[in-house]
Write a structure and sequence with these properties.
alpha/beta, eight-stranded mixed β-sheet, Rossmann fold
């Protein structure tokens, strides 16, 4: 069987640097722009892209950030240190949305993608129809040393997979548990570390939460009960600080819900789409 997903490349310029971005899409209707987690890629969203209950109502689009998946690093990357920042991440999401001609898409991001969704809700809400921030909080300091993920004497991909394995709910099927971890095993040298620099060291959202106007653009936050990186308490604290934001605490799910257990994730995701399109 041939899946209905179409994959293509998009040439964009981000902060003056040409980038070749890989993206996948399926469906028609109101667009949803989907963001993967740190150290991973668009494959995390493959179940939503293949779900006709979603794609009959929405054009679902997911893209690999530069340095991730099929999006190569820019020319000259061998002389650079990859460290993602809030400003670069925002510029990337906006550049992709503009280049694809998306008219007020819903933005759905997980983990670092959820964090940047909230940053965009504070800074550029007028460009989006709604925000679904999955496993997202205002700020989450690292409880581990991120420099371990890029050392000559350690396999960063396998170490990344070992770390995230603790963030997958025990109810996740073995097949999707291991395919989720495989994406981290394949991560490029230093990429997971560079993403975690954004997630744990870059600008906190705390001072910007009051700038989010859910009357203009709805915000829905989702968090798995087995997430120890962004705990339900973290998500609830963040939602409480955003007037009008809604919150769903997801049973039997961890930090990678759309990938680790898509069947359990689906009803929560469908509810989220209903909330931000109401």
């Amino acid at each position: 069987m041939i899946e209905p997903i179409t994959g293509r490349y998009l040439a964009v310029e981000i902060e003056g640097t040409p980038q070749r971005i890989y993206f996948e899409e399926a469906g028609t209707g109101q667009p949803i722009l989907c963001l993967h987690t740190a150290g991973a890629d668009t494959r995390q969203w493959r179940f939503a892209l293949n779900d006709t209950d979603v794609t009959m109502r929405h054009r679902v689009i997911a893209f690999d950030m530069p340095w991730h998946g099929k999006s190569l690093p820019p020319d000259g990357f061998e002389t650079q240190e990859y460290l993602l920042t809030t400003d670069t991440y925002i510029a990337t999401v906006r550049a992709v949305a503009r280049a694809l001609g998306l008219d007020h898409p819903i933005l759905a991001g997980c983990s670092m993608g959820g964090r940047i969704a909230l940053q965009l809700a504070a800074r550029h809400a007028d460009e989006f129809a709604g925000f679904i921030a999955i496993e997202a909080s205002d700020f989450q300091p690292a409880w581990y040393d991120i420099d371990w993920f890029h050392r000559p004497d350690a396999h960063g991909g396998e170490m990344g997979a070992a770390l995230v394995s603790a963030n997958i709910a025990p109810q996740a099927p073995e097949s999707t548990r291991w395919s989720t971890q495989w994406m981290f095993m394949q991560s490029g040298p230093g990429v997971f570390r560079g993403d975690l620099s954004f997630y744990t060291r870059d600008e906190s959202l705390t001072a910007r939460l009051a700038d989010i106007d859910t009357g203009q653009t709805p915000v829905h936050i989702m968090c798995g009960v087995y997430d120890l990186t962004c705990t339900p308490e973290d998500a609830r604290r963040t939602a409480d600080a955003i007037p009008g934001a809604t919150l769903a605490i997801m049973e039997n799910l961890g930090h990678f819900p759309m990938s680790e257990h898509p069947v359990a994730f689906k009803p929560y995701f469908m509810e989220a789409l209903d909330k931000v399109t109401a």
